[in-house]
Amino acid sequence: MIGKLLSLIMLVAFIVLGVLLGSLNSTLVPFDYYFDQRHIPLSILISISFIAGLLLAGIFVFVQVIRLKWHNRKLLKKIKNQSNEIIELKKKLHQEARDQSISANPNSHVVLSSQNQS
After folding, report:
1. What gap in Å lies between CA 69 and CA 62, rounded to an integer?
2. Helix, strand, or coil here: 29?
3. Which of 39, 50, 79, 110 has the most CB atoms within 10 Å of its CB?
4. 43: which residues sit within 8 A by CB, 6+ positions away?
5. Average pLDDT over all residues of the chain
6. pLDDT for the residue numbered 108
7. Which residues contact 39 (CB under 8 A, 6 or more apart)?
8. Is the pTM of this model over 0.90?
């Protein structure tokens, strides 16, 4: 709720700032581009530059987020593979320990099975 209110306040502040910039900078300035030259109000030129900067920054952030998500997915896959490997190694270690205990005392399972029959 507070985040939405803060966003609304910032939006209104930017609109007021934009109107102020527009009213204070209404003089025509020459804008040269490759093929032609036009006279554009300074406020519109400032707004176009601001929007272009936002778009470029947005593209940069988007690329970074996609790259980090890809890296994160790769690391999660690596963690999953390592977890599976740990589980398999624990199973193997448990099996080896059981095999060693049986080979160290081969009659232990016979005693247990004869006790169960009684």
Report:
1. 11
2. strand
3. 50
4. 21, 22, 23, 24, 25, 26
5. 84
6. 55
7. 28, 29, 30, 31
8. no
The three-state secondary structure class of 21 is helix
What are residue 26's phi and psi, to 5 degrees? -95, 5
Say if residue 106's pLDDT is above 90.
no
**112: pLDDT strictly greater than 60:** no
Tell me the chain's radius of gyration from C-alpha atoms: 36
Helix (H, G, I), strand (E, B) or coil at 64: helix
The CB density around residue 43, as the number of other CB atoms within 10 Å, is 19
In percent, the amount of the chain with pLDDT more than 70 equals 88
